[in-house]
Amino acid sequence: MSYSYQIKSLEQYRETYKKSVEDPEGFWGVIAKQFSWKRPWDKVLDWNFTGPEIKWFAGGKLNITENCLDRHLEKLADKPAIIWEPNDPSENNRILTYKELYREVCKFAQVLRNNQVKKGDRVCIYMPMVPELPIAVLACARIGAIHSVVFGGFSAQSIADRIQDAQCSIVITSDGGFRGNKEIPLKSVIDEALLSSPSAKKVIVLKRTQSLVMMKPGRDLWWDEELKKVEAGSSQDFPAETMDAEDMLFILYTSGSTGKPKGVVHTCGGYMVYTNYSFVNTFQYRQGEVFFCTADIGWITGHSYIIYGPLSAGATSLMFEGIPTWPNAGRFWDIVDKYKVNILYTAPTAIRSLMGFGLDPVKGKDLSSLRILGTVGEPINEEAWHWYDEHIGKKKCPIVDTWWQTETGGILISNLAGVTPSKPAHATLPLPGIQPVLVDENGNVVEGTDAAQNAIDSKMPGELKSGNLCIKFPWPSIIRTTYGDHNRCFQNYFSAYKNLYFTGDGALVDEGGNYRITGRVDDVLNVSGHRIGTAEVENAINMHARVVESAVVGYPHDVKGQGIYAFVIRQGVQFDKEQDRKEIIQTVTKIIGAIAKPDKIQFVSGLPKTRSGKIMRRILRKIAEGETSNLGDTTTLLDPSVVEEIKNGKL
Ligand code: PRX
């Protein structure tokens, strides 16, 4: 494949950026023409942010799997599409060529069809990182069913909420999964989830760990037995369903500052165009290279840059079942060496955790195949950036610091590897087509921070500016709605500032227009690159019988970026504190999953509240961060004395 829209120089970047903001429809129309459409679109873009009503490529018809699979069969049939490295290095790996992946997806699409899954149905996927996961995802897309992948670390309660919210009719899971030296019992978690999610009538179960699981007659089916029925049939091709560009492709739940996680909706046409475009440009992918994204497919990074972006570009995507530190902290470097990985895309948390093991795990590993490194998910500190640059990239690999979100579908702000300059700890410049601005607390654009206007005026910000990061114009993979509650989408993203998409992040822009993301400015935590709402954790903590009230904030954590600090008022102070701490952690694990476990729990007799009853998180955040002197104005508090007590009891 050739990528005519791959930008090759800084000069070309500047020109392209300018063109993209002067004529967005012309710009995206040319890129979208590179894909395989069953019918061309009538109009590139229709939009307003007050609905929001956003339509890309309206009238266009396509199937994303034809773009990820069928169209490569002529030239790339025998090229590896997915390389799978198992958790345990002594187990055999698996390599699926484009032709093989195509076959598997068609067969599993037929399995879904045999089980009455139709276009528009929602399918919950709760699986370990094995090739059958992308196969299931693509099979859904092939028949036009909407996939909702749930990360394997979420609890039964979290899955039940997601299945119910989307009214999924079927669940695809496995007996269990391997992660390091642990076995995760996925099927039994699903059994529990289904007790409170009656919409799911069937469960397809892949055998991965071969552990004993309960199979409910009439509901539960084995993956391999269903597949055998298809293999016995005559045709193993499965014609791809015709989808409108704006038909839903998937739902992915993510945490916000209030309420339960919301189902972010992406649609077929725009998401396909943008994930491909951003993949090809950010990573400067070259045909034949091996791309290794270490994310889990349960998160947006895995959706966009293990499955859809790389496969639509005919790339070789390496997926890894395990964790970076098992059987030892050299696991990533062994994989890079073994498969001659060219592009490595990982999270700052992983880098920081591996840094902690020193250089021994890197020694003796041939990392010379690496050409480009990437990071995603949270701000990267300069120390980690330099370690990655020096010890992994050997100072010859450009590092792309890619900023984006579940809601944006793909990378919005990042340097283009080796094409536009990198700057440690900076996401740097917007991709062409992306129009960021910073706004102040009154909603006014901070002067000099409107990237599109600057391009048109050939200007630079000139000095360092800060504000809340917004985007003022749609891009093809922008969130379309929150499943089942369109108003929530408006309230969350488009109501804070008129006619702007608000990201929830704070940012700085330097004199040259480089963005540095400083972190969330709302009540959302980012723990090891995982998004967790403070309200969600509080609700879970409050489920514990002896908890009266709680407040959760983030604090800086050396490895995880942010840790979770919970201030808890409990009934019956005579009870053993350690026991209560343990039980609260168990409660959070049960309600949300282990990823949301508080790192610190401080029992307090009261929380700092305003006279109207609002918890002053600002004060708690400062205390958790270790700041005890400069807490700001506390005179508006109902009972200022609790602050002293909380300060004295800080963990
Ligand atoms: O705060 C930003 C942070 O992660 C948030 C999005 O989280 P999620 O939807 O789970 O998606 C993560 C993977 C795309 C953002 O609001 N974030 C993501 N990338 C970066 C980042 N913060 C700083 N630098 C980044 N490169």
Description:
The protein has a domain of 121 residues: 2-Layer Sandwich (GMP Synthetase, Chain A, domain 3), CATH 3.30.300.30. It is built from 20 helices and 30 strands. Helix 5 packs across helix 6. Strand 28 and strand 29 form a beta hairpin. The site of adenosine-5'-monophosphate-propyl ester has 22 residues, from helix 11, strand 20, strand 24 and strand 25.
What's the story with the biggest beta sheet?
A: 8 strands, mixed
Q: Give the name of the CATH superfamily of the domain at 528-648.
A: ANL, C-terminal domain
Bound ligand species: adenosine-5'-monophosphate-propyl ester
- By DSSP (H or I, 4+ residues per run), the number of helices equals 20
- Ends: how far apart? 56 Å
Q: Given the helix and strand composition, which structural class is it?
A: alpha/beta
Layout of secondary structure:
Layout: H1 10-22, H2 24-32, E1 43-48, E2 53-58, E3 61-62, H3 64-68, H4 73-76, E4 80-85, E5 94-97, H5 98-114, E6 122-126, H6 132-143, E7 146-149, H7 156-166, E8 170-174, E9 177-179, E10 182-184, H8 186-195, E11 202-206, E12 220-222, H9 223-231, E13 243-244, E14 248-254, E15 262-267, H10 268-282, E16 290-293, H11 300-312, E17 316-320, H12 331-339, E18 343-346, H13 348-355, E19 372-376, H14 382-392, E20 399-402, E21 436-439, H15 451-457, E22 465-471, E23 481-482, H16 486-494, E24 501-509, E25 515-520, E26 524-527, E27 530-533, H17 534-542, E28 547-557, E29 561-570, H18 577-591, E30 600-603, H19 617-624, H20 641-648
Parallel strand pairs: 4-17, 6-7, 6-8, 7-14, 8-11, 11-12, 16-17, 16-18, 18-19, 19-20, 29-30
Antiparallel strand pairs: 1-2, 3-13, 4-5, 9-10, 14-15, 15-23, 21-22, 22-24, 24-25, 26-27, 28-29
Helix pairs in contact: 1-2, 5-6, 5-9, 7-8, 10-11, 13-14
The protein binds adenosine-5'-monophosphate-propyl ester (PRX).
